[in-house]
Write a structure and sequence with these properties.
This protein has 89 residues and is mainly beta. The protein contains 1 helix and 5 strands, in the order βββββα.
């Protein structure tokens, strides 16, 4: 059975070897036919502690690593913008 793969944004990297990833999806409302954004947070395993807050990452389902952690980081797609770059200019 293939493992599920999701893409999301890192909202917290304060834990050791663990990040919190916010995954958003769009769902159509059954009555009004309007697309609504739904989001969910996942705890993912980050072995090398390379992901920082604001990064876009791809996570994959894996065996349970702890009580809440059943996802692991497989790819870091984008780096978070630095605060110094936003202020300069």
């Amino acid at each position: 059975m293939p493992r599920r793969v999701l893409m999301g944004r890192v909202t917290s990297d304060k834990m050791d070897k663990t990040i919190t990833v916010l995954v958003e999806r769009r769902v159509m409302h059954p009555l009004y036919k309007k697309f609504i954004r739904r989001s969910k947070k996942y705890a993912a395993h980050d072995e090398e502690n390379i992901c920082k807050e604001g990064d876009v990452v791809r996570i994959e389902e894996c065996r349970p690593i702890s009580k809440r952690k059943t996802w692991q980081v497989i790819e870091r797609n984008g780096a978070a913008p630095h605060a110094e770059d936003a202020v300069a200019g």
